[in-house]
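Quick check before the chapter quiz. The format below is the same one you will see on the exam, so make sure you can read both the input and the output lines.
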Amino acid sequence: MTQRVLIVDDEPQFLRALATNLRGAGYAIDTATTAAEAQAAAALRPPDAVILDLLLPDGSGIDVCKDLRTWTEVPILLVSAVGAEEEKIAALDAGADDYVTKPFAIGELLARLRAALRRAGAPGEPVVEVGAIRIDLEKSSVTVGGELVHLTPHEFRILRLLAQNEGKLLTHRTILREVWGPAYGDESNYLHVYVSQLRRKLEPDPARPRHLLTEPGAGYRLVAAS
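Here is the expected output.
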């Protein structure tokens, strides 16, 4: 069944080019150029995913994201020329699944879209595999390339959270609150220590990580390979 993507952007050339590329990749496309059009289009023909610009003529993409999240859990990729840390965090806190800064390669956007759609349709399985990393959720065990890796309980919880959201950018605040609780929501330096330890155990070269990637000022994502 063909998956439908709603693209929301007020730049005609960008909108046309993105729609053409996504159609070429096999997606059915609906488009909108304003926040009001986006909300109407999503309600009329619910999409499987939304690619949403941050700045729209009649409002913010973040507000559209919040509105969509009141009734749908479809993947939302927010795109913008604004790469400020606070905007990324606001978008993710509003319910966006990812934040992509313009300009970007169409191949990267398609890869992130595929990952978001996989996550949305994936059943909760006891084993999660991300590249050479295999996480057995039931047994709380991890192997890399078939070799057993010992993780502390907190390291395992961080890895499990990232693996269950493969490819998705998770903010420092989200990870801290999910793993340690609300009291640790602003302790990003605390989290950095644990991520460094995880990289030493999971990455062939911890100084140049291929799987556990940093999004500067925003958070972390786990990918099969970078």
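If your answer matched, good. Residues 176 and 185 are 5 Å apart (CA to CA).
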